[in-house]
Amino acid sequence: MKAKNAKILVLAIFSFLLVFVIVSSCNKNTDTTTEESVASDDATAEANFSDESKIVDISAYENGLMKTNGTCPAVTIDTASTPHSMTLDFGTTNCLGVDGKYRRGSIIITWTGRYRQTGTVITHTFNNFYQNDNKIEGTKTVTNMGLNNAGHLYFNVIITNAKITKTTGKIITWNSTRTREWIQGANTPTVLDDIYNITGSGSGTDGNNNAYTMLITKAINVDFGCQYHITSGTIEITPTGKLTRTIDYGNGNCDDQGTLTVGKQTVVFKIKR
């Protein structure tokens, strides 16, 4: 397909990082090791879910770049139906991607119009989908809101009934509302130079069934040219009845580090890949 149309399809399928959080069940006396683990798990969760959007984009753009054996994923695109749809089928047994992760099941995307068209609605769902044996469920709905005052396209992103069932049996759930501003890469065919700013809030429960709220207090910068995706931004996570956790992803460097602050205690954590 032509580069311009490929990018339209790719972005109609969307390159979006879903920011979700794993909240600590520990109290303010928790030691540094435990708090670092909380931050690392949160960053790992964000990066893992980000992978799904990137795989969708790459598969649409290169029609199966992530394939390692010629059959995974099988990409089916239907532009005759309304809304249009694309299905990435990884099969019923684990398939190893070039990124070193195992996947099975399907990712399904539908869209009503071109990504740049005001009013276009894009929906992203999963069918019995697993990444590294963690089951991923939920619905992401993206609506094109047109140009903002800075002349950038922006999108409302609503996450409903999101759920990750970990291999341990623990379940993470959340719902959220986001605004995504496309600040760079809109005029090129590749997705790897795309950069977005994400703002918004959400709520859910962690793997120990602790309720929490989260708020992005400084826009999350999502750079798909960086293997860790997030290069800057700040998130506040507040478990019910407990201290607010502040996660800071830095000032723009593409690295695997961030900081977590709880009260007067600050630790450095790494994003696991």
Topology (SSEs and partners):
Blueprint: H1 3-13, H2 32-62, E1 74-78, E2 84-89, E3 95-96, E4 102-111, E5 121-131, E6 134-147, E7 153-165, E8 171-184, E9 195-205, E10 211-223, E11 230-239, E12 245-251, E13 257-262, E14 265-270
Antiparallel strand pairs: 1-2, 2-4, 3-4, 4-5, 5-6, 6-7, 7-8, 8-9, 9-10, 10-11, 11-12, 12-13, 13-14
Question: Explain this structure to me?
Answer:
Helix 1 (3-13) crosses helix 2 (32-62). This protein has helices spanning 3-13, 32-62; strands at residues 74-78, 84-89, 95-96, 102-111, 121-131, 134-147, 153-165, 171-184, 195-205, 211-223, 230-239, 245-251, 257-262, 265-270. The chain is an alpha+beta fold and 273 residues long. Strands 1, 2, 3, 4, 5, 6, 7, 8, 9, 10, 11, 12, 13 and 14 form a 14-stranded antiparallel beta sheet that branches. The chain is built from 2 helices and 14 strands, in the order H-H-E-E-E-E-E-E-E-E-E-E-E-E-E-E. The two termini are 32 Å apart.
Mean pLDDT: 76
Structural category is: alpha+beta
Task: Tell me the total number of β-strands.
Answer: 14
Tally of separate helices: 2
Uncertain runs with pLDDT below 50, 5 residues or more?
1-41, 58-66
Total number of domains: 1
Q: Please, what is the oligomeric state?
A: single chain
Beta-strand content estimate: over 45%
Biggest sheet architecture: 14 strands, antiparallel
Gap from first CA to last CA:
32 Å
Helix/strand order, N-terminal first: HHEEEEEEEEEEEEEE
Rg, rounded, reads 18 Å
Shape by Cα distribution = globular
Helix content: 10-25%
